Amino acid sequence: MAVTSADRADALFHALSDRTRRDILRRVLVGEHSVSALAAGYDMSFAAVQKHVAVLERAGLLTKRRHGREQLASGDVEAVRSVASMLEELEAVWRGRIDRIDALLTEEN
Amino acid sequence: MAVTSADRADALFHALSDRTRRDILRRVLVGEHSVSALAAGYDMSFAAVQKHVAVLERAGLLTKRRHGREQLASGDVEAVRSVASMLEELEAVWRGRIDRIDALLTEEN
DNA sequence: ACAACATACAACCAATTGGTTGTATGTTGT
DNA sequence: ACAACATACAACCAATTGGTTGTATGTTGT
């Protein structure tokens, strides 16, 4: 049941691994968009786009806010930064900065 | 046939979306390891680990070098940085810095 | 020379993914 | 009031994924 940081990393990188989702994220980082406004931009069904939005939401990369009958999605830049941090940690490993301390901070916590 | 930057991004984020692969990447960023040395660290078959290494290699996150009968894998920190850059670009979109110029640099080039 | 080792890859399998259409449920504007 | 709209989600499907075992092919150390 415990959601580990590895689970979070899995969900974040998986969410980012699809180009449609990266594009949606780009748009909602600029500003709020309803699910249908987003869906209008892609050559696939509304349901497909709605699922992509749900994947981004579950990963924490966007949040939704009700506004009448619409759900307005906005990108969460903090989540994007948390992914960037994971990569910086990898760069730090490369630089040899971390060595053994690394065992405390990585994957299984 | 053309490998777009979107294809590269797909491969990079997909490669990073598995915790075993992130762990392998961490190890090969510290130093060279043969495929069997890597495989010894995980509770799965040699073949499974060999496939994970191949996924990382295809994404460009590690390179292999022959040494006798071994293949020594090392992490490519530049590839890690290129992923970090994509995230920085997303943060820049959020800051509103990019606006329309963005259209030139993103996804489809 | 050759047995043991290191790797690659094929064939297979169950689970997951990214798409589809259809249906149910709220919300709104006239 | 109610038709039209916005969303969510179920059921389905083909393709991909992450694992397995087995086999082929090099390379090495004695």
Automatic annotation (TrEMBL), chains A, B:
List, in alphabetical order, the Gene Ontology terms for molecular function in this entry: DNA-binding transcription factor activity
Q: Which InterPro entries match?
A: ArsR-like_HTH, HTH_ArsR_DNA-bd_dom, WH-like_DNA-bd_sf, WH_DNA-bd_sf
Location of the HTH arsR-type domain: 1-95
Question: Known PROSITE patterns for this protein?
Answer: HTH_ARSR_2
What Pfam families does this protein's entry cite? HTH_20
Domain of life of the source: Bacteria
The residues the entry assigns to the signal sequence are none
PANTHER family named in the record:
SLL0088 PROTEIN, TRANSCRIPTIONAL REGULATORY PROTEIN
What protein name does the entry list? Transcriptional regulator, ArsR family
Organism the protein comes from:
Nostocoides japonicum T1-X7
Its lineage opens with:
Bacteria, Bacillati, Actinomycetota, Actinomycetes, Micrococcales
